[in-house]
Amino acid sequence: MPTAREIMEGCFRGEKVFIDAFHERYKRLIYDAIHSWMREYGVQSPEDVGDIFKDFFIKLLENNFASLRRVHDIDHPTGLIYLAARQYTGRYFKRQWIGNRRKHKLTQKLERMPGVRELPEDAMLDILKEAIAELDEDQQNILELLNWGNLTYRGIATQTGLSVTNVGAIINRTKREIRDFIRREYPELRDFFCNKYR
Amino acid sequence: MIDPKDSGKGSDKMDMLLRKFFIKKHNLSSSERETFVHPNIVALSDYINKSLKATDMEDIKAHLACCKECRIEVEATLDAIRRFEAGNLEKVPESISFDIGSYLKKLRNKDSNKPPKK
Question: A161: distance to nearest CA of chain B, Å?
């Protein structure tokens, strides 16, 4: 029987035999994660469990296990797999909510105002919060200095000891990462955040 | 609501939201600010595996002390790991199991049909 390390490394290389082994070993864990998330947040929608389960695997395969590649302790990936499946479940329902809301709004209001796409600000900030949590600490600090401290690139460079060019590059990379996150996790909002990069 | 007039092109909208995000964060009390941005799942799994640096372990511990949402995630994960290791997890019903082999085949066929990049 392959070890957890062998399975994970095999999956990262895209080898079918290890992907099958991953599915076989962790399917119950992923199923449990979806169920427990729905139970804890009071979501009663048993017909969605199958879709979330399949979508989670499809996403792993399509992204070459990107969300699990970040594991630091490859001999113990169970925690990260479980947390990733729970996070996916949360995002699945959030996407559904956004989808319904937009549809509802379209019929009510936006049909008369083509091109305007709006969402409650709290929902947008909540999604931004998720994206910011994925950034490293330095990126988060630089964003905060820029947007809250109102510092210029030069001011940030002085405060952090980086060069001005470096600060500019980090800010651009950070914004790109936020856009990529939204494009990946909330494709429904792609136009809102990313219309410059379509 | 976000004022559509206030949001121009992609990056302007993002800048506007980022500013609002940090204003919102700094309008909170210091304890609320502590839990405003949650640690990501990699950090939480490293915390569970105890593979973080001592200072990072302390940071997550402090966050968990005041953030119910993350505490639920960690407790549920620890419980699931225990049940997984003891072989006590519920069986996946036949009706929702996923044929990974045929999907993989489909995905690879799709990739091989793509024209090569110039």
Answer: 22
